[in-house]
Design brief:
0% strand, single chain
Amino acid sequence: MLLAKITYSIIPAKAGIQNCLKILDSGSRFALCAMRCRASLTRNDSFLWKGKILKKIIGLGLILILAGFFSGCGWWAKKEHELTPKERYDNALKLLNKKKYEQATEAFRKFKEEFPLSHYTPLAELRIADALFFDKNYAEAIVQYEDFKKLHPLHSEVPYAIYQIGLSHFKQIGTLDRDQTETEKAIEQFRYLVENFPQSPHTAEAKKKMQYCQLQLAEHEFYIGHFYYRMKKYKAALGRFEGILQKYPDSGLGKKIKPLVEKCRAGIAKEEENRKKKETQEEKKKKLPKEISPVRQGSTF
């Protein structure tokens, strides 16, 4: 009966640690009782064989108790860590919000591997790009945002991905004396967002960023034009200044540029005048008669 009771007690061990402790308590009582029985049996040599049988029963009971304990605890531990996809996604998102970007990136990548068909997987891909962006790995972030657009062209977060691509380029804009390729790429992304997703919550901010980028390009052109002006390269300077007035009429640089445009034109006119004078002088020199060499003394005809 006691062995049956132990075996019966092993089954609910999967309920957790409390049941495991109960089993151990029952096992302890069982072992104590068995030891008392064995002590009484050893007093009589005629019952030695019964002691051997009882010893085997004790061993079997302990094995069953331990098996129930470990299997119950193992099941309980596994149950504790079996999180749903949403819980796993939320845990990774917490890492991102705590600015633990490398850990967040790794957590979202593991999520993609373990739940490839979850509807949270596209968001996990987007959050990987966000983690790279906030960690200032802008070039890698752009690649991830572009991949998201290609894999999920109809996803509701595509406008956000486009805005983030533009913002990644925006964050890499250099000073006025540097190449402005990143500025041009940022304008391209912001313009695409404004034209194709006018209802997006990111459109208003994209317009502001685009205006800033256009002003950056205008000031870059002015910087180059003014450099040519100081070097008295008036034609090159004039081309830059007039280009600004045509391409960026709202830049606010018109007041500074117009006086310089007039000076450039005056400088060009003066250069042209000097060129013509020089050509005239060259022509006059060509038309002058050649100097007649003097006749040598003593020469005869």
